Amino acid sequence: SDGGPLAILEDGGQFAAPLDGLPKGARVAWWTGLGGLPVEPAIRAAVDANRRVFTDLGCVVEDAEPDFAGAAEAFLTLRCVGNYATYAPLVRERPDWVKDTIRFEVAQAERLTGPAISQAQARQARMYDDTKRFFQRFDYFVLPVTQVVPFDIETPYPTRINDVAMGTYIDWMRACSYVTMMSTPAMSVPAGFTPAGLPVGLQIVGRHRGEWRLLQMARAFEQATRHGQRRPPVA
């Protein structure tokens, strides 16, 4: 479909072909600090332990990442505006049907000004342009899926990471929202386990409309590691 600026224009039949044949020399950008985001040491260790996998696959791996300054604030603004359009009528009519985090975002949207929304949209546009330039140098970008290890099911969301307080209920997911701001295809794959036996994932991000090559890389990584078929070392 050509119904959106991110839509793939080619025939979808291409995705029925085998995913073999990963080109040698693919350039992989390896995350460094995501602009200073707090990341638990066990997550960093598990993800970074997979760097050699990409090298062994014939990739050229280099420390690099886009500029994410201001991306978190812009994402939250755009999320609040989007959820306001979707849920504001329901919040007014049946607030008991809506969880408190969505009510929070609807309330935040009502306080936003036109200039604030415009600035968020401008930051998203700049992120898109920066990402296109970034992927002129690289074929893929690798980073963690989450910044924390899996937490107790009774915990709604983490409120601190490495003694850094989380301002909102989505702050702990910035490693994902940053990729959303990039407007590129991404795939989350198993990356192994922490010493305590908790699963960790990494994201492989591809170029704009680069779904096919992303699938190729994700399959090659999964075939090389078999992480998804393993069981944790500690029950």
Features:
235 residues, alpha/beta, 5-stranded mixed sheet, two-stranded antiparallel ribbon, 7 helices, 7 strands
Short description:
With 235 residues, the chain is of the alpha/beta class. The chain is 41% helix and 14% strand.
Topology readout:
Blueprint: E1 27-30, H1 41-48, H2 51-56, E2 60-63, H3 71-93, H4 100-111, H5 114-137, E3 140-144, E4 160-161, E5 164-165, H6 174-182, E6 186-193, E7 199-206, H7 211-225
Parallel strand pairs: 1-2, 1-3
Antiparallel strand pairs: 3-7, 4-5, 6-7
Helix pairs in contact: 3-4, 3-5
Describe the structure.
- The protein has 235 residues and is of the alpha/beta class.
- 41% of the residues lie in helices and 14% in strands.
- It contains 7 helices and 7 strands.
- It has helices at residues 41-48, 51-56, 71-93, 100-111, 114-137, 174-182, 211-225, and strands at 27-30, 60-63, 140-144, 160-161, 164-165, 186-193, 199-206.
- Helix 3 (71-93) crosses helix 4 (100-111) and helix 3 crosses helix 5 (114-137).
- The chain is globular and about 55 Å long.
Q: Please tally the helical runs, counting DSSP H or I stretches of 4 or more residues.
A: 7
User: Helix share of residues?
Assistant: 40-55%
Mean pLDDT, all residues: 92
Coarse morphology: globular
Widest β-sheet, arrangement of strands: 2-1-3-7-6
